[in-house]
Amino acid sequence: MASSLKCSSYKKYEIRKRDPNPKTSALLVIDVQNEFSSIAKPILSNLITTINLCRQASIPVIFTRHCHKSPAHYGMLGEWWDSLILDGTVESKLIPEIGQLAKPGEVVEKNTYSAFQNTGLQEMLVEKGVEEVIVTGVMTNLCCETTARDAFVKGFRVFFSTDATATSSLELHEGTLKNMAYGFAYLVDCTRLQQGLFPN
After folding, report:
1. What pTM was estimated for this model as a whole?
2. SS3 of 130, please?
3. H/E/C letters for each residue in 5-48?
4. Which of 4, 80, 121, 156 satisfies CB 3.0 to 4.6 Å to 166 for a cystine?
């Protein structure tokens, strides 16, 4: 896959405005793994900034890691993609810059696009009193978008980062931002998030 192009600002597609409530929010960092390093590298600085902002605001951070135990567990993804990520491989690990930020108990394993599918994520969020999620990571139009849509349907208020998500092309990235803003999520970027979490 090609490297991510320059990401869009939230202002281009924003329809509704709202700031996350740090008391009821969680940050989801989706699949920032070695397999996707070429896509993730261009947004790494923004992603780390977003993680640090959320830590400063005492917002729980949850990292996901996409992997399969064996080809028998590929499901429909096996029909769609030539190769998938096997657990235990270098490709399955979080990229070092992100892995070092993950604390014990903060990593959720998943084996399909949605981070909510058979992972216990929803129960984890409910237990923490979370009502809102901030979605970051890769790939914008696949796992990030599916997770955001799923979160919305499950009753979570969704915030979607425009500069801490990335995919294989700007066209696909912006297509997701349009969809998110239209029907599923409030758009944010690092600057907007900082202003919303620390207004004074």
Report:
1. 0.93
2. coil
3. CCCCCHHHCCCCCCCCCCCCEEEEEECCEHHHHHHHHHHHHHHH
4. 4
